[in-house]
Amino acid sequence: MLNLSFQQILIFDVIFALVVFVIYRLAIRYQFFKNTIIIIYWVAMIIYLVWRLFFTMPHDNIVNLIAGILLYVAEIGGFFLSTVFYLLFAKKHKRPVKTLAEFEDGKYPTVNVFIATYNEDEMILSRIITAAKNMTYPGVHKVYVLDDGHRDEIKALSEKLGVNYVSRDNNDHAKAGNLNNGLDVTDGELIVTMDADMVPRSDFLLRTIGYFADKKVGFIQSPQTFFNNDPYQFNLFSEGLIANDQDFFMQSIEAQKDAYNATMYVGSNAVFRREALEDIGGFSTGVITEDMATGMLVQAKGWKTAFVNENLASGLAPETFGDLITQRDRWARGNIQVARKWNPLFTKGLTFMQRVIYMDGIHYWVSGIYKMIYLFAPIVFLLFGVYSLRASLAGIMLFWFPAFISSQLAFNTVSEGRQTIMLTNVYETVMAPYMSFAVVREALFLSKNKFAVTRKGVNTDETYYNWRLAMPVLVILALSILALIKGILIMLGIVPFKEPVNAVYINVFWLCYNISALALAAFMPFERPRFRKAERFPDNKNVEVFSLDGQKLGTGNLNDWNEIGAAMTLNKDIAPNFEEVVSNGIRVLISIEGHTIEGTVSRNKVKDGQVDMAISYVNLSEENYSYIISQTYALASTIYKPVRYNNSISVIFLSLIRNHFKVFQKPKKG
């Protein structure tokens, strides 16, 4: 080992870690040091992989050799993924903002807004239709509800809200076919595509249409954001602690892809030039991820694309672990289908970097298989004596440790706090069994080419553990714990083991790393109640409360509200007879910014002269409904304030311990 003693290797590791950490701290502020830490990672990783290939591959028997090759392939695959990832972040990209002022002649393009729906309920559709209809735009924009559910009630809703309803005789090609049918019956110059659960902000068109003053722009994409908690946030009791697991891709990776005209179309929150869609024959069909294929083919035709990194529309993330798995299964299979039908390596018109980026996106879905190899390698070694690598502890510390520590810090540097490598490890571990199964099944043509719609708007008062979905993770976790116990017993000399104890140390550490993610993954199928029918939005607007006969009962501030109800705190100047006049079930009027809304009191607690009160709306007018939507779901992006998250694994564990065994609160209405 280069004639170094173990003590010298430890000294080297400490010095290396200190130097890299200093560079990491500098990289937070300076791009030069950010690139420096990326280069250090690449060099350390290449040295490690060379050492792995020539000095650690097991050759004593065929089983060990196969295990060693599988692990090495997983490491090489992971290195390729990280290489493209860091190439994207080698230079910070920020697109200049374009506004409607770009149209100097004041002639704004006509816009058609497509709301594609299949089985979403009226409450969800009412939000997006109202918000889409009321978007601010000096030009002409028309809203079209494209209903593949062929529902009379949705047709009636569209007519009531004053937008166009479109259905068709069949459901050919699922969502892509639905959008293409919309193209056939409309004539707008620009097409906005919105998933039914998304809600555009009032300034969506103001912040996006300006880019189309450049006649070569084919489409723009803005990030998908979410106003509810996804299963990671909710099932792990981490609301407010970690971001939605899609946020990093949507708001960071997509922005960096934009530097290479390779922003991926994600199916919603996008605006297309009709001419660009006609250039490729409409939205792509024949795959279940028509969005990715459509965007790639538009770029292959030479059209410019742009990523507008602003929160311009928010929607519903999957609300149960099962729905999350369904969604990611569809994405994984769809990417394999795209690779089969329009392989980016051979798609004419793509630039070199576009090919690399799209292939990397497809390759990402194979990483579930890599993660499964990482999870099983230490298990099969300690339980069955199957080697994946033959290395001394000194070799691991000299070659693996620098690559490991630099990878941790490099990722945390480029993610700028939006995500950590430990949190990424949890996401990958949670998805690995299901993602790898989906990819293998699709690769072997065992999947049905079926578009599965992700359920949205789930609310329930049930608490249950989804044992069927949990089983793969529980089995791997149980095997990991069993292997860890055996490893500890080997180190204590209680259980004999034919292999060197140094190898046991390495695999025990490996298991501890895996178990930390598997333990959180085991909580993911634990579904706790989602009582509310709609998410509540915090606010502090002034509010006045009146009885139905006009008596002023108090003033205060909103706490939160939605289209169903509102919660508020009234100040100490409440009417002297407040408790006599107002009780649960009593009708009251509340006034907010000149809007008078009738409601039934559902909560009314008086303490120290202040009142904690909640109401459920009654006879909500269309005008008041539009006002509430504009102040909650559709709040202008210039007013909306993004949330910053901790994203710490230790904080998640603490939250789980603190909350998991608490008695669940009683259901709240609205």
Structure description:
This protein is α+β, with helices and mostly antiparallel strands. It has three domains: 234 residues, no CATH class; 232 residues, Alpha-Beta Complex (Spore Coat Polysaccharide Biosynthesis Protein SpsA, Chain A); 92 residues, Thrombin, subunit H, CATH 2.40.10.220. Helix content is 47%, strand content 14%. The strands form four sheets. A seven-stranded mixed sheet has the order 3-2-1-4-8-6-9, sandwiched between helices. A six-stranded antiparallel beta barrel has the order 14-15-16-19-18-17. Strands 5-10-7 form a three-stranded mixed sheet. The longest helix has 27 residues. It is globular, with a radius of gyration of 28 Å. The termini are far apart. 43% of the residues are buried. The C terminus is likely disordered.
What attributes does this structure have?
670 residues; alpha+beta; Spore Coat Polysaccharide Biosynthesis Protein SpsA, Chain A; Thrombin, subunit H; six-stranded antiparallel beta barrel; transmembrane; Nucleotide-diphossugar_trans; cellulose synthase activity; cyclic-di-GMP binding; Glyco_trans_2-like
Total domains: 3
How would you sum up the major sheet?
7 strands, mixed
Overall, the morphology is: globular
- Amino- and carboxy-terminal Cα gap: 66 Å
Main-sheet strand order equals 3-2-1-4-8-6-9
Q: What's the total number of strands?
A: 19
Q: How large a portion of the residues is in β-strands, by DSSP E? A: 5-15%
**Uncertain runs with pLDDT below 50, 5 residues or more?**
663-669
Number of helices: 21
Radius of gyration: 28 Å
- Structural class of the secondary elements? alpha+beta
Mean pLDDT: 92
Helix content range: 40-55%
